Amino acid sequence: MKALVDNMLVYWLLLLGISLGLAALVYVFWLKETMIH
Amino acid sequence: MYEFAIAGMSAPIFLLVLTGMTVGMVGGFIGVGGGYMVTPALIVFGFPGYMASGIDVMHIAGKSVVATIRHRQLGNIDWVLGLAMVGGTMMGVEMGVRLLNLTKELGLSGMALLFGSVAIMVGLFVYTQIETHRAHKKIDQLTESGAEVGRELKATKLPMFFQNISLKPIIRCHVARIIISMWVVVIVGVATGVLAGFFGVGGGFIRVPALVYVVGATTHIAVGTDLLEIVVSGGYGALRHFMSGNVDMIAVFFMIIGAMLGAQFGSIATSFVRGPAIRYILSYSLGLATVGAFMRLVYLLTAQKYGFLNFFAVVFTVGEMIFLCLFILSLVYFSVRYRGGKWVPGWIPALVVQKD
User: Fold this and answer.
1) ipTM of the complex
2) Given a cut of 80, is residue B303 above it in pLDDT?
3) Which end of chain B has the smaller Cβ count within 10 Å, N or C?
4) What does the domain layout of chain B look like in residue ranges?
């Protein structure tokens, strides 16, 4: 894990993946019904 | 879910509080109002476009006051610089709004806004990313050679060019430690104001880089002084939107609850990091916002045929805010660890300050 985090680009991609995953969950559970397309 | 009577729709309260908190944190850290993130997010939540704009500007005005007070306590505001710029900014905003109305009459406003905003954000992202990366590498090299490095280091000579312009009157910005022609500051204010008025945003994402790369202020001073500008321009915008009936105050209230907390933390977080760390977050926010806007643009240009583009645009809009907050929290976490002598990733020491 330390080796992964030690590389800034990898850390950036990891955080981005987590964030987009959380955002996808928010979309599926809360936004899909209320969204304007 | 809460029923917003004025907006005529319902939305989950926690999402508004969370949006306010995340954008407040980012705004307090990089000195932006966050309109380019909040307005698309509110539209995604179901608010009508004009209402999303009005709620956004109203919450920005309130949140910026909190962040500005905190930055003043941290010594990050140059009042001479801020006051010299505010007149130009207000004039520029008015010119930008009139330019927008002109493009509306010509039937070009929608496309002009989208293409224009994508072009500017891409340009700023590329320049800021390259310069910050170079500054990061320079700090690493200086630290390895044993030299002491302060809170700020830039890898560009552009501010020197503008500071050497000797058109009177010359102003001395004691907090920012720069001596510069007032005309440069006013023109920067007008130019950033025009862009802000045209795109209907606070302008922080343009003004902070302008203060850093043109005027030559340190990133921390640019963030604090820009938030002062946003209090003025945001306050004026909030008043106009309120008078036009574009604001649901209950929605603003929920957003401000989150924004008050987020803005406090974001502002205080700047004292843990060096200038390049703030510029990295600024460039990431521009890059991700561009990707989201580009997806939305392609979705509209393809006559809304491909639903997955809209899905990705929504996920990027919400994900961007979460990502920026997680990165800011990481920087503070690693800064505390570094001060305590614990292990941190190799790229952290150049980005954080070891002592207060």
Assistant:
1) 0.89
2) no
3) C
4) 2-339
Q: Which of B318, B324, B331, B344 should one mutate to test binding to chain A, selecting the residue with the greatest count of A CBs within 10 A?
A: B318
Q: At what angle do helices B49-73 and B249-269 cross, to 10 degrees?
A: 30
Average of per-residue pLDDT values in chain B: 85
Contacts of A2 in chain B (CB under 8 A): 343, 345
A34:B322 CB<8 A: no
Q: pTM of the full predicted structure?
A: 0.85
Three-state DSSP class for residue B9: strand
Cβ contact, residue pair A37, B327, below 8 Å = no
Total count of domains within chain A: 1
**Is B8 an 8 Å CB contact of chain A?**
no
What CA–CA distance (Å, rounded) separates B315 from B319? 6
| The two three-digit tokens of residue A27, written as one number | 């979309």
d(CA B221, CA B247): 32
Cβ-nearest to A8 among B9, B323, B347 = B347
Please tell me the distance in Å from B114's CA to the nearest CA on chain A.
17
Q: Over the range B83-103, which residues count as b (16 or more CB within 10 Å of their CB) and which as e?
A: ebbbebbbbbbebbbebbeeb
Does any CB of chain B come closer than 8 Å to the CB of residue A30?
Answer: yes
Q: Which residues span the domain enclosing A23?
A: 2-31
Q: What is the pLDDT of residues B205-243, one digit of tens each?
A: 888 999 999 999 999 999 999 998 888 877 877 777 777
